[in-house]
Design brief:
This protein has about 270 residues and is α/β, with parallel strands linked by helices. It contains eleven helices and seven strands. Strand 2, helix 5 and strand 3 form a beta-alpha-beta unit. It is globular.
Length: about 270
């Protein structure tokens, strides 16, 4: 699906409304406990996040914000590794579970695109998982611009695209005439560039197609091997289903050239072998 098709498919859809269902929180957590494919993706995402901290932050204090934090999955993994932990979401039912898991964290119920109550606060690390792919294009741009405003000058933003449009999974879906919300590598590059970000690293996950409704046929170790191999061959960001992007504010003309968003080091994947 190209950019214009994606825009059309989202035209009458507001992703924010999908999280107001009173059963959203319990159902979301249950899927990550019970569905093998989701467990695999999350295990690899945890590995990537751990290496982002080790590679880019050393031992310095980290002011951390999780945007669209939901039930606190990402925050719960990172809370012991950061100096302060803040989560923002608009789903009351998901935040109830989040507060129960993370009583010491700052949990805020708000839609930052409507009311940015964070004011002038800055964060060293910001994460936003499973948001941008699902959101309509206008919401993507609004939300990312706000996150960039709250990102410290030397901070990192980590986002993911869990339905990469060129992945083997989405190619198969299109062949079967199934329309899944997705986002292309080009759309990610354009979105980050428009908001003043440069992609400095990426972590591709899920070369072999997987889905919530399909049992995992291959063992996790073989999935990891295939993901690593695709990345080394330069095919990971084209063919893998879930891509984590590590972004920083693009350097100004007075500094050195910003990193090309199409380039990616092997650092994260090599460390995760």
């Amino acid at each position: 699906m190209n950019s214009s098709q994606t825009e059309l498919s989202h035209r009458s859809f507001d992703y924010r409304q999908s999280h107001l269902d009173p059963d959203k929180g319990s159902g979301y957590d249950r899927r990550y406990r019970e569905i093998p494919w989701r467990r695999y993706l999350w295990s690899r995402e945890q590995t990537a996040l751990g290496h982002v901290l080790a590679e880019y932050f050393d031992d310095r204090p980290i002011r951390y914000l999780d945007f669209a934090c939901g039930t606190g999955r990402i925050m719960q993994f990172l809370q012991s590794r950061v100096s302060s932990c803040t989560g923002v979401d608009l789903s009351d039912t998901m935040l109830q579970l989040c507060r129960a898991k993370l009583p010491a964290a700052e949990i805020i119920a708000a839609d930052l695109t409507e009311n940015d109550i964070l004011a002038d606060r800055r964060f060293d690390l910001i994460t936003a998982f499973r948001f941008f792919t699902n959101a309509q294009p206008d919401l993507r741009r609004q939300a990312l611009a706000i996150l960039v405003r709250h990102l410290a000058d030397d901070g990192l933003l980590v986002i993911n695209n869990h339905r990469n449009a060129s992945s083997l999974l989405l190619r198969m879906s299109r062949a079967l005439s199934k329309d899944l919300h997705c986002m292309s590598e080009r759309e990610v590059g354009e979105l980050t560039a428009e908001t003043g970000l440069a992609i400095i690293d990426a972590f591709p996950i899920g070369l072999w197609p997987g889905h919530d409704s399909v049992p995992m046929i291959l063992p996790a170790w073989l999935h990891r091997f295939l993901d690593q191999s695709a990345h080394r061959c330069g095919l990971g960001r084209s063919l893998c289903q879930d891509i984590l992007y590590v972004c920083q504010k693009a350097r100004t003309s007075s500094g050195t050239d910003s990193v090309d968003s199409s380039a990616s080091s092997n650092t994260l994947c090599e460390m995760a072998l």
